[in-house]
Each structure stands twice: as structure tokens, then as C-alpha cells.
Amino acid sequence: MRRRIIFTVILFIVIIVPLGGYLAAGSIIYNQLTSVTPHCNNRADDLDNFPESFDLLNDDDASAYFMPDYSRVSFPSRDENITIAGWYVPATESPETAPAVILVHGLGSCRHAPSVLLPAGMLHRNGFNVLMIDMRDHGDSTIEDGRYAAGTEEYQDVLGGWDWLIAVNNIPAERIGLLGVSLGGGTVLIAAGEEPRVAAVWEDSSFANIADAIDAEVQRNGYPQFLTSGGLLMGRLMSGDDITSMSPLEGVEKIGTRPLYITHGTADTRLSVQYAYDLAAAANANGNPVEPWIVEGMDHVQAMFNFPEDYETRLIAFFTEHLGV
Fold it and tell me: What does the H/E/C string look like for 112-170?
């Protein structure tokens, strides 16, 4: 009897206590790395930005990109019980026949972000309809659980916008493209992989293999890498999210030979430029001759602000070629 008690105590000390500590640490990591402050408050300064008037991160004059005629819209995600908020800006001329692009923000941001409004303005002044959305748990869309799921859930929000453009605005599927920055870039790659009728995708500064990105994020926040698995496990237990179930890299493989544009800065301190090379390599391996635009010296999603003319030229050429005018 005494031996059994000693064995139980040893078992508790050697296995149960460390396991409990590991899971507790995993819970902390999961909470810190996936929590999103609702209503775009992670970037509170952006809330003064609207299509008709917005500021750029480098304080350049943005008036040439303003979009005064827009509507607040909402529509269902492809996921039940999720409503997506957005702004729809019809093309100035012949909106009923113009192509459309859906623009998707990054983590902790929303459609008020300059990194959404600027490319939207570039597209709009060149004859495109544009739809800017808030993904779930961001901006004015449904707050589901206050966490992001690395695109594994949010891609359905993007496709809800894609469905809305077709059903409400009668835009043909072959005339609709997707544009995403950072988390939004990864999300649109997943969305296009899951919806084979998406015509063209532009991604700026996305991650690639989600497992690699999670490891990098854990280390960037000062945690030991071996705690990554604990964080993923606690994510499944706490919210039911399996953020490794889908990946932008897999999305690129599913996109196949459909039009894809990849851009990233060499000085990105948030998501490594290596991800752009990984995504391009996956595209090339599937017969898609993508050559990424790697912008020297640019930090995360900065090329559009520092080289707006070059960015706009490339952006318009890509979507015009693949969506029409």
C-alpha cells in the first residue's frame, strides 16, 4: 500500500505537474497570440479613415484615391450565424459591367486600414468595383469568439463577399478577384483554393506554411518553440479551432494555374520574405509560372506606400489582364 502511494506521488510529480504546467503555458500562448481586440481597436487611429477621406501611413496626400460614393453593406458569411460588414464602391462608369475586387485586411485591423483603402482607391480610379470587408472578430462584423483562426474560418467570410457580388450585383465569377494583405493575404489564398471559380488573387506579405508561421510567432513573442504544440492543443480544447487544418501554401497548390500575384518586402519584420519564395515555389511546382515581386528594403506591407506608382501599375495590369476592363 505504501509503495502504491509513493508511486502515485512520484507519478504526480514527474508527469501530471509538468503536463499541467505545459498545458497552462499553452493556454497562455494561445490566448496571447490569437486574441483580437474587437472593432479595429488594435489600430484605433484607423477608425477615422473612410473611403471618402483617409490618411496614409507615410502622411502623403491620399486625395487622388478617395472614393466618395460608397455604400455600407452587410451579407452572410458562408459560415452560419456570421454577418460580414463591408463597404461597396461601384465603378464610376458602367459598374454593372465592370470587374470587381474584394479587399481583405490584416490581423487586428479592419477595412478602415490604409493598407486596404489605398489599393482599393487605386483599383477604383482605374474602373473597378471594390468591396472592402471586415473579417469575423474584426471591425463591424460578427464577434464570434474574439480570436483569429489564421484564415481557416475567415476564408468563408471572403467567399461570403464573393457570393454577394454574384447574387446581388450580378457580377460574373470570372470577373471577380481577391486582394489580401498579411493575414488577409493568407486568407484569400485559402479562399481561392476552396472556391475553384475565383478568377485571380493578389497577395501582399502573407505567411505560407502555417506551422512555420506559428513557430516564428511563438519565438517572436519570446516563448520557447517547444511550447507551440501546447498552444495548438489548447486552441482545439478552448475554442475548437484547428489553425493547422488549412494553409496558404496548400491554397496555392489548389489554385493551380489560375492567375496569382505575390509581393513581399525584404525587410519584413512581421512575416519573413521567405514565405513569398515558398508560395512562389509551390505555384511553380504546380505549373503556375509566378515570379514574386520582392521589394528591397520594405517592411511589412509597406511597398504600396513607398512605391505607390509602381504598385498601382502592377496591380492594375494584373487585374485588368485577368478580369478584363
Answer: CCHHHHHHHHHHHCCCCEEEEECCCCCCCCCCCCCECCCCCCCHHHHHHHHHHHHHHHC
